[in-house]
Design a protein that fits this description.
The protein is 62% helix and 0% strand. With 183 residues, it is mainly alpha-helical. Bound molecules: fe (ii) ion (FE2).
């Protein structure tokens, strides 16, 4: 699927700016991690972009979070099994069966921390350092919704040292930052 068509689906199925910002940020991080790991950048980016597509629609009905997105994408004629599996994987451990579906869990968490960090910096995502992000990781009261364990455990989970993971993720966010007001 072309990115423009994917963005139209995001437009169609999400309501909130914060959801849009989150989806774009995870897209950027997933693309960078795919490149770093020698994986398919466009497919990993799409998994990131779509992973919370139903987030605004399933707030009252959270058990539908994930499966609803997969249904919508199928109804739109999108059937990439690996991407759909990664979308389910971000929610359910049972689907974490390959690199894309395992990495997305960590991309989701780090993107949340990076966006929150960018929002409190005058330069936003520009010039963000690994050191400053790790400082925010330690500050428990900062962005308390971030699943910090999914950042801390990244080396044992997907075999990328945490500093390297954060550096690649920052670069991924910076690529998309102009689209979400963080450049
Ligand atoms: Fe997410």
């Amino acid at each position: 699927m072309e990115r423009a068509a994917a963005l139209e689906l995001v437009e169609k199925y999400t309501d909130k700016d914060i959801t849009f910002r989150h989806l774009i940020s995870v897209e950027g991080v997933m693309r960078a991690l795919a490149a770093h790991l020698g994986e398919d950048e466009d497919r990993w980016a799409l998994a990131g972009l779509f992973h919370d597509l139903d987030y605004d629609a399933t707030q009252e009905n959270f058990e539908r979070h994930g499966p609803q997105t997969v249904e919508w994408l199928r109804s739109e004629g999108y059937n990439d099994a690996g991407v759909l599996n990664a979308i389910l994987g971000h929610r359910f451990e049972h689907y974490r069966t390959d690199a894309m579906s395992r990495v997305i869990v960590h991309a989701d968490a780090v993107a949340g921390l990076l966006v929150a960090t960018a929002l409190v910096r005058p330069e936003k995502a520009t010039g963000m350092s690994v050191k400053s992000v790790k400082k925010k990781l330690k500050e428990k009261s900062f962005a308390p919704g971030v699943e910090r364990d999914e950042i801390r455990n990244v080396e044992e989970s997907i075999d990328i040292p945490m500093d390297e993971f954060i550096a690649v993720s920052i670069a991924g966010l910076q690529e998309v930052a102009p689209e979400i007001g963080l450049a």
